[in-house]
Amino acid sequence: MKLDLRPLLAGERLLDIDYELTVDTDGEDTADFLYGVSFPSPMKVKGDITNTAGYMRMRLDATIDYHTMCARCLKALDGSFTFSLEKTVAPKEVLSDLDEDKLDDYAIIEDGFLDIDEHLLMELETEFPLRFLCREDCKGLCQKCGKDLNEGECDCPKKEIDPRLAPLQRLLDEMNNKK
Ligand SMILES: [Zn+2]
Ligand SMILES: [Zn+2]
User: What confidence category does residue 84 fall into, taking pLDDT thresholds of 50, 70 and 90?
Assistant: First the structure.
């Protein structure tokens, strides 16, 4: 959403923010920054921008429901993710002398308006967990027979790996650790 900050720039002291932001998902209903996650409903955003003698500060709280799966056993998981965001708000002209890397701390007003969606999406992308587990000690699926090992051991041999397949096994282990 583009917020009209002209009243604040003219001396108003408070702007309340309360809206919903739909997070775009790609064709497969998956957030494009994260494989296997979808957001069934819009992000709920609440907060305000305060103006203290020309110093503007934005504080936002956001909540979004997600649908994903356990990284080990692939069980479906639903939950709700909450984060908050704080930035100093300033007009572009004021920030023109600032170093590029310091600009991250700011939300920039352009021609009296501030687009807060990009800040929220960037924060979501940064803060959202890379993977979820159904429980801390989820045992996952057997890589051979696919059995859910949380429900008990399977009959596959555990230790012996054909030496010719060892490199493949290492690769699989690495991939699993990266998830
Ligand atoms: Zn699991
Ligand atoms: Zn098995």
Answer: very high
In DSSP notation, 35-103 reads TT-B-SSPEEEEEEEEEETTEEEEEEEEEEEEEEEBTTT--EEEEEEEEEEEEEEEEGGGGTTS-GGGG
Residue 35 pLDDT level (bands cut at 50, 70, 90): confident
Instruction: Give the pLDDT band of residue 178 (cuts 50, 70, 90).
Output: low
How far, in Å, from the CA of 172 to the mean position of ligand 1?
18
Cα 75 to middle of ligand 1, angstroms: 6
CA–CA distance, 123 with 60 (Å, rounded to integer): 11
Can you give the residue ranges of every domain in the chain?
2-127, 149-178
Which ligand sits closest to the CA of 155? 2
The residues facing 62 across adjacent strands are 45, 83
Question: Model confidence over 122-136: pLDDT tens digits?
Answer: 899 889 988 899 999
Q: Average pLDDT, stretch 99-120?
A: 89
Residue 146 CA to ligand 2 center (angstroms) comes to 6
Backbone angles phi, psi at 25, to 5 degrees: -120, 155
Cβ-contact 138, 72 below 8 angstroms: yes
